[in-house]
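We modelled the chain as a single entity of 894 amino acids. Its sequence is:
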Amino acid sequence: MNQQTGHVGIVDVAGDVTIDWNLAHIQRTPGSGKTWSPDAASRACRQRGGMALLADLVGSVTNELRNSGRADFSLRVSSIPDEGIAPSDARFNHSYALWEPHLSGERLSNGKPKLVWRISQFLGLDRCASPMTAKPGTPAKQESTKSDVVVLDDAALGIREQTSLWPPSIMNPQSQVWVVLKIAKPVVQGPLWEHLLQHFAERLIVVMTVEDLRDSEVQISHQLSWERTAQDLFWELTYNPRVNGTSRCAHTVVSFGTTGAFLLSRQHSDNGSSQSITPRVTGRLFFDPEVGEEGWEGDRPGKMIGNTTTLTAGIVRQLLIDRETPDLARGIQSGIAGMRRLFREGFGTYASPSDSVQLAFPLEVVAAELATDRKILAEAPIQDPVHKLRRPLEAPPTRGSEGYWTILEDCQRQSLDVLAEQIVVGGLTRALNGVPIGRFGALQTVDRREIEALNSIQNLIGEYCGQPQTRPLSIAVFGPPGSGKSFGVEQVARSVRPGQIEVRTFNLSQFTGPDDLLGALHQVRDISLKGKLPLVFWDEFDTALDKTPLGWLRLFLSPMQDGSFQEGQVTHPIGSCIFVFAGGTSHQLASFGAAFGDEGFKAVKGPDFISRLKGFLNVLGPNRHITDQSTDPYFIIRRAILLRSIFERNAKWLINDERGARRLAIDPGVLRAFLRISQYHHGARSIESIIAMSALAGRSSFERSCLPSEAQLDLHVNGLEFLSIVQEIELRGELLERLAEAAHDVFCQGKLRDGWKLGTAKNEQEKTHPLLRPYTEISEEHKEANRVTVRNIPKKLQKASYVMVPSRSNESALEFPGDDLEMLAMFEHDLWMEGQLLAGVRPGLPSPEDPLRSEHLVAWDQLPEAIKQIDRDMIRGIPKILAQTGFAVMRVHY
């Protein structure tokens, strides 16, 4: 019995039916198939498709729920003939596909690779003039025409226009039935859709594929980043008049196949209306962080039918379990788990050509997978792309609101420094569980900007390689020296055409003239003639030729545009190749040629050169990239990923198995320095060089003693700064208390110097203060204030380019802070205000009724001079405080 209603529930299934003709291609001997041969065999298998297949799977789901005692539903669906159907039967639409054995990725019990039947080619649909469109079976006289759930399969083959075939439950606008609409392109249109939207929106769940949605009048990015695609979907389904009727539905599910799904859910409005102009909706993304859209199958060949049917059945299952509050997230998770099981199982196992072949959808296997309720995907709430426009003018900006929305930022529950350390020590996947990772060969990144830029280049190369070409694909790459410009593009290209890429690099700053360029182009042409795809890096293309700035540009115009080069009277075609122009003087496209002005840039053919580019890439590298819009907070994550990669390649003996994880053995101070050093002089090459210069041979851990000397480090970083970070003290425990007490002493000495004395209350006129007593006698609240002051010392020193170093000589103390006193005192006040605001303190005079106020929560220029003096004293006292631990202050010169 149905636990919610106490009666056996009814599920109506109606929709468009196809007859799927699965043509199994069995090739017995190599080479057969080029001509007719009795050794090449094929077999045709028929299966009911469309609504009939969906009904069969929903039937398996209801049986499982009934047997487990979770819910009791009967299925009501029309009887569809299963015998005597021929391809010429005009009652049906006939679908055709060619199936072949493909590797499943698993092995049989005998150790041999398991082969399963998957589609190698979709052959199309034979549409009949008057196809049979099925509706639920006619109820017996004593049976009610009502149902609890209606499942509709609208494949645009008749059901959406033929009202006579709609289930009785949806013909009654007062019905409280749940409707699940699986819809194909053209989506969300037609009489059926309009009827359901008008009468059942609040109990309507729509399921569609992103491919069908993209074929509508929408703009949804493809394989750039999960965040970009999710926000595109959110906007289109909420604001685009062509499809925004979906935002009035209870739920809309958009499938990405086996890699994920998008869920748009309507929130209940305060007035109960579903017709509000600005719908209150939320979006949720279900995604595989290891791959992008369409990436789960990887190199495993073959396609499957029934994916959306499986997802729909997973959602229906949750409705049958709980119709009041169905867990759609669980339905989506189990639905995609079912899709993956379907792909692995195929339409049966292939053992040998002599075996009997009967291709069929694995109903029971998929239904069993849906019942496991496995969570296989990461989930993330989607930020409304127009949320900032709705923010009240007086509301302060939220964390990260001025930049791209990223899942990384939403998932981050700790400081970026800690996260970066976890990436280096434990590996990227383990540290960033549930965060999208862009993988391009050996290159990995989690920065959304980088993922989108690299995916754009990958799409460009993929499109270029997908059809015959007569001229090069030209791409420009900019970035600081050592940022990995060549490495990034090479990895992207190899991921598109593995084994087919041959790389050539030419540094134009080393060419003596145009003849050297001709020789290089001949090498490129030779590679192309051998059947390989040349990937040609023109390094420092923006250098001068014969003292003419950007003089090389004009020589590339003809090869880029015409795919050929002139040598005397002979024109040589280059063939298919990829030109990568790597900037040597410009670090980003926006600065390329900016120094010339418009007319000067035209004179050196700059606009003509740019017009021939098909794409560009700005590579950030391991150093912080400062722009007017952003301070690049995720540079430390890029640096961490690069560090881990270098250790895996160049010092892999330091990485050991530890409780199922591959952990790097490295001193915390050394790791901290690698991550927090302000700049690497030569980008990634400097990181590699420091590791190579370190004494790691025969070591099982990277200890401080392995590091090269300060003078050697100066080749690649500021050695003094690097070593000071290595030796930075951890401010906690007893050490923290000693420093906090020293900070309190500095405060007391400053007040006593200015004529203050101990008193029961603070009094400006009488100059009395209750805190002018030993540290052990002040309250815990005031002790914590001193601890905060001490914890912020590294921030204050870094602000003015100072570092903490062990005091190992009798040299006189550095005069600190010199001309930086006022700037650092202001920073001290800013840090104090930040802590007070986080603690809930508000501006204003405190009172017994409202103690969480402070009259000093004001800008620096509004502070009383006595309070400013306290901040100055705390800055001047930093050397004295640090002396308690044997550390001194030194200035770093960059």
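As a brief sanity check on the tokenised model: Residues 681 and 716 are 5 Å apart (CA to CA). The chain is about 35% helix and 20% strand.
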